Amino acid sequence: MLFFNINLNCYVVIEVKTGEFEPANIGQIGTYISAVNHILKKENHNPTIGLLICKNKDNILAQYALDLTEAPIGISEYELSKIYPVNFKGTMPTIKEIEESLK
């Protein structure tokens, strides 16, 4: 996802991973940041920020992966059980519900 933060005057590249953090993710989001910097970023904009959101991460591995990068990249975790309510039902009907409605 790509956003522009008006208050920070910079682009923000956000990548959400469905699995655990892997050091290779830094190279991938770094590529996206570089593309934004070459194609969209203007001279008056602040440096593009990258935010990598993973299911979970090892803090030490993440620190080592970020150690030599100059790009401003943050890594965060998510936990779906904290995002959705316990009795959450999706807005899309199940296959069974679709089949029943067609009878």
Describe the structure.
- This protein is of the alpha/beta class.
- The chain has a single domain, classed as 3-Layer(aba) Sandwich (Trna Endonuclease, Chain: A, domain 1).
- The chain is 35% helix and 21% strand.
- The protein is built from 4 helices and 4 strands; from the N terminus they run E-E-H-E-H-E-H-H.
- The protein has a 4-stranded mixed beta sheet with strand order 1-2-3-4, with helices on one face.
- Strand 3, helix 2 and strand 4 form a beta-alpha-beta unit.
- It is extended.
- The mean pLDDT is 90.
CATH class: Alpha Beta
CATH architecture: 3-Layer(aba) Sandwich
- Which stretches are poorly predicted, pLDDT < 50 over at least 5 residues? none
pLDDT averaged over residues: 90
In terms of quaternary structure, what is this?
A: single chain
What is the CA-CA span between the terminal residues?
40 Å
Find the CATH topology: Trna Endonuclease, Chain: A, domain 1
- The amount of beta strand, in percent, is 15-25%
What structural category characterises the helix and strand content?
A: alpha/beta
Number of helices: 4
Strand order of the largest sheet: 1-2-3-4
What is the number of beta strands?
Answer: 4
Rg, Å, rounded: 19 Å
The coarse overall form would be extended
